[in-house]
Amino acid sequence: MRTVNLSQADSHLASLVDEALAGEDVVITRGGRPVVRLVPVGATDEQPRKRQFGQWAGRIKVHDNFDDPLPEEMMRTFRGEDA
What is the pLDDT of residue 59? Predict the structure, then answer.
């Protein structure tokens, strides 16, 4: 794994991208802490899955009062009026 600080990454971005494309694990740090990992697009194992219509049918319940107005106290909180 190659670790570089933000200043080094700024100066050598093109070569770091080439290294990541070649399979090298490149991590960029800020203040000594890892903050970014360079990986090629499409390199993750996660593939988007198709959603199956009705897959939650019978597993969840929407309460009868779901669409009722929220209590005024909660609305004040959402509006930032409560301290």
Answer: 86
pTM: 0.51
Backbone angles phi, psi at 73, to 5 degrees: -60, -40
Quickly state the pLDDT bin for 83 (edges 50, 70, 90): low
Q: Are strands 2-5 and 26-30 parallel, antiparallel or unpaired?
A: parallel
CB 25 within 8 A of CB 2: yes
> Could you give the CA distance from residue 38 to residue 21 in angstroms, rounded to a whole number?
9
CATH class as words, domain 2-38: alpha beta
Structural domain boundaries of the chain? 2-38
Task: Select from 30, 24, 27, 29 the least CA-distant residue to 43.
Answer: 24
